[in-house]
Structures are given as structure tokens and as C-alpha cells.
């Protein structure tokens, strides 16, 4: 029987490499029967599981037991596939002497998954037959938590960057990006069309002066909620800043279809907004342009919609087509 007799740090560090690299002349070699095996693997902070050639668990270290909430008696003689996906296990086996490390999960006693970095090292006989396999794995739960925190922060920052903080609507930058997509689509598909509607809240400043900024902010939120009701999922509603909203109507095939939507929106502003104890009416000016003008640049679309916006106050509507 072959056994490592010393317990030096060097022996601990090279234990598993030694098992695979030694010229094994003893056909009855079994790491489980080596007195120092359990002692050495218990000094390792990562999970260590020793398997037989049939993938049954022969030995585990204390780190593994603590990690998975099992007792030693509950794990020994069980299949490794009770806690590890079989496909991942085989993916992590050494090929051509290259130690492959993969990301996988271990299954705890309560069926909770633990993210791990896994590497499997076979112990071979002189005939290159697998006698045992050493599974070493590192718990990366904290790494995953940090990664998720970074993703959440990135998503939050992206949302703040792309959306108006008050209404939650896309901001001007996203409006322009969506407008570019709509314009590109008309260039690729001649049957596709869109209209751009700009809405200016004429009396927002008056509301702010009379009722205060909190009521004015509440009004902006109410307006955005009301506008959403008249648009479908293909349209884009954005707050362009201050008292101006922008709408991209992608569902209409002509300016007449867009006008129907505009009339509904126009009519909606004839009804008051309920803000706490106040009923607030607000006047708006709207201007629209359509893609049938064969625009090549987004800037030209916004320019013409702005020009239409400035022609007539409500109830008249300026259409640039």
C-alpha cells in the first residue's frame, strides 16, 4: 500500500498532484486506506470529495460537510450525481493532462444550489485505468453576490441614465434612439411608416406657480399615465424635458391614422386631472410630422415636428405632411 508519510506543508500542497504523478507500482493502492488522506484533505479550505471509479463518494473533507449540511455518513457511498450535474462532472474531468475548471453548482441537503468552481482529477493506474477521482471545488457564492450587486447597480444606473426620474418614461436620448430605429425600418421596408407627435404643456408653469412644484410634479406623472392609455406596445412615449413629451406612433400606416390617435389625446386634455383636493385643467399644444416625407436624418424629423408644434395652439393642430 502506498501512503504519504510526512505531513509537511509541501506534502499538503502537492498531495493530489502526487497521487496522480507517482509511478504507482502497487495494484492495491487506495487513498481511502491511507491514514493521512483524511487529515490532509481536512486542512484544505475548499471542498474535496474522493470518488471511486464508479463515481461513488469514498471520502469528503469537513469543508464539504459544512457547505452542503450533510453528515459524513449521509454522503459516503452515495453517487456524486446526487449533488452534482452529471454533464458538468464529465466536462470538468482532465483531458490531455489539462486541468479543466468549470462553473457549476452543488446541491445542498435542502436542495439549495451552491455555485462552485469545479475541477476533477482522476487517479490512474499504470494501465491508465481510473482507480479514483478527486473532486476539488471552490464555493463562489460571495463572488456571485458581488456580480449580482454589480449587475443590479449597472441596471439601476442604466435606467437612471435612460429614463426620466419623475415619470419613469424614456428620456430624450432614448426617444432619439427609438426614432432612429423607426427611420431605419422605413428605409429597409417601404411599407413601414411612423409619425412623430410632440406635446407641449402650455400651462404647466402656471400650475407650478399657483399650486407649487409638488403638485406640478404630480400632474406630470398623471399626464404620462393618461397618455400611456392611448398608445400600444409598439409606440414610444418619452418625456423630452421640462413641459414637453414626445410620441413615436409606429402602428399607423398614414398620417390620417395618426390623427385619430392625436384627436383622442387632444380630447383627453379637455378632462381635468385630479390632484389631491384640486381639479386641474391644462392646455397643450401639439405638432406632428410623418415619415412619408422621406426623411434621411432624425434631426430633420425633430426639426419639422418642432416647427409644427409652434404653428397653432390648441384646439388647432398643426400637421407637417
From TrEMBL:
Residues 192-321 form the GGDEF domain. It comes from the Bacteria. PROSITE patterns: GGDEF, PAC, PAS. Residues 100-152 form the PAC domain. The lineage of its organism: Bacteria, Bacillati, Cyanobacteriota, Cyanophyceae, Oscillatoriophycideae. Residues 40-88 form the PAS domain. This is Uncharacterized protein. It comes from Crocosphaera watsonii WH 0402.
